[in-house]
Amino acid sequence: MKRVLLNSNFAAAYAVRDVDVDVIAAYPITPQTSVVEKLSELIAAGELDAEMIHVESEHSALSAMVGASAVGARVFTATSSQGLEFMHEILPITSGLRLPVVMAVATRAVSAPINIWCDYSDLMNVRDASWITTIASTAQEVYDSIIEAYMVSEDPRVLLPSIVAYDGFWMSHTYEPLLIPEDPQQVRELVPRRPRPKLDPERPITLGTLVGPDWYFELKYQQVEAMKAAREVMKEAGESMRKVLGRSYEPVESYRLEDADVAVVTYGGIFGNVMGAVEEARRRGIRAGALRLRLWRPFPAEELREAVKGVSKLVVIDRAVSYGTPISGPAALEVMAALYGSGIDVISFVAGLGGRAVTEGDVVGMIERGIKLRGLRETIYWGVRGVEA
Questions:
Q1: What is the pLDDT of residues 117-173, one digit of tens each?
Q2: Which of 186, 202, 218, 238 is the least crowded, having the fewest Cβ atoms under 10 Å away?
Q3: From CA 138, how far away is CA 149, in angstroms rounded?
Q4: DSSP string of 16-75?
C-alpha cells in the first residue's frame, strides 16, 4: 500500500481507475466536477483505458450509462444536486433494467434558492429509486466504497445500480491521507468481470419491453429480493476487501455505545464532529454514544436494532427535510420505523441545511436538548433564526 493525499472526489476517481472501467459519462456540476476532470487526466496520461463521453446534460449522462452497461461495459458517472434531479427519470430505468451502474454523488443542497453547499436533499430525493446507497465519512471510505459498489452491483444475485455519496465541499474538496494499492491489479482481482445478461447481436435478448399488470408487479418484487440479497453480498465483499486491502466496513458504525444512555445517529462527514461531541458530553457527565448510518439502501434495520439495545434515547441528526410530515428527518423516519415497539425514544433534529456548519457545540446542544424531551413527535429545526431549539 502507498499513502497518498487526496480529497474525496479524487479518491473516487482513483477507485474508478483501479477497477478498470470501460465507459465514463458525466456533466460538470459543482461540487462533483473534479471527479471526472481527474478521470480525464488519468485517461490522457494512459493510466486508464476508458471511453469518456462528453454529454450535454446529466439526463444524457445516465442515459449513456444505460446504453453502455446494457451491452456489457463496466461504467461510471458522478453528479450532485440538480444534476441528480435531472437524472431522476433514468434512475428507475437503470435499476429496472438491472444494470450495475456505479455513481458517485458529492451531496449538495437543491434549488431554489440556488445553493452550492452541502446537505443531503439531493440524495434523499432518490431514496426509493432502487439504487444501493452507501454514505461515506472519509476519503478512504469513498475509495473503498466505490470498489465495493462494483463488487456488489455486478454480482449476479444483485444486478442493481449503486450510489456512493459523500459531503460536497466538506469532503469533496478537503484533502485527507489514505492508503491505496501500489498495484491496481490487487483491486481488479476483487472485481473480476462476470457474465451477465446483455444486448448482443449474436445472442439477441430484449431489455425494457412493455409489461402489463400480469408481470410488472413480479418484476418489481424481483428488485425487492435483489435488495435483500445485496446485504449478504456486501458482507462477502467486505470479507474479500479485508483480505486484500486490510479494510472493510459495517452497515452501521458505532462509537462508545457500550454504556451509553443516549446516542446520536447521523450519516456522512459530520460523524467526526459527533464523536468529538460525545467526548464533550461525557465530560459533562452524560453517558453518550454515537452511531453512523453507512448503508442507506438497503436500510440496515437489523444492525441498528442490535447496536442500540442498551440505549434509552436516540438523537437523530438529518441534513435533509421530508416536507409535510411532523417527523421530517428522512433518517429519523427510518430509525423510528426500524425501532417500532422497542421502547427507545427517538428525537428528530434537522440541521446544517445549505451547508451551514454542524459543530461539536451544536451536537452537544442537541444531546442536552434531546435528554430533556420525551415522546416528541415533531422535528426540531436546529439553529433556525427565531425558532426555539
A1: 999 999 999 999 999 999 999 999 999 999 999 999 999 999 999 999 999 999 999
A2: 202
A3: 16
A4: HHHHT-SEEEE---TTTHHHHHHHHHHHHTTS---EEEE-SSHHHHHHHHHHHHHTT--E
Maximum distance among all alpha carbons in the chain? 70
Architecture, CATH, for domain 2-245: 3-Layer(aba) Sandwich (3.40)
- Intrachain domains 2-245 and 252-381 with the same fold: yes
DSSP letters of 351-367?
--GGG----HHHHHHHH
Question: How far is it, in rounded angstroms, from Cα 320 to Cα 317?
Answer: 9
Please, are residues 65 and 71 in contact by the beta-carbon 8 Å criterion? Answer: no
pTM of the model: 0.97
pLDDT tens-digit series, residues 197-233: 999 999 999 898 999 999 999 999 999 999 999 999 9
For the chain, give every domain's residue range: 2-245, 252-381
Distance CA 162, CA 149 (A): 6
- Taking residue 376's Cβ as centre, other Cβ atoms within 10 Å add up to 16
- CATH annotation of 252-381: 3.40.50.920
In this prediction, residues 171-195 reach a mean pLDDT of: 96
Amino acid (1-letter code) at residue 175: Y
Cα–Cα distance between 92 and 96 in angstroms, integer? 6
**Residue range 364-384, pLDDT digits in tens:** 999 999 999 988 889 999 999
- In this structure, what C-alpha cell is assigned to residue 6? 487526496
Cα dihedral across residues 27, 32, 37, 40: positive or negative: negative
Q: Is 164 left (phi over 0), alpha (psi -120 to 50) or beta?
A: beta
Average pLDDT over residues 65-91: 98
pLDDT in tens, 325-346: 999 999 999 999 999 999 999 9
Sheet strands (E) in 216-340: 252-255, 262-266, 288-293, 295-297, 313-318
Q: Are 350 and 329 in contact (CB under 8 A)?
A: yes
Is the predicted pLDDT of residue 388 greater than 70, yes or no? no
Instruction: Transcribe 83-128 into DSSP letters.
Output: HHHHTGGGHHHHHHTT---EEEEEE-PPSSSP--S--SHHHHTTTT
Question: CB within 8 A of 236, min separation 6: which ones?
Answer: none
225: its cell numbers: 429480493
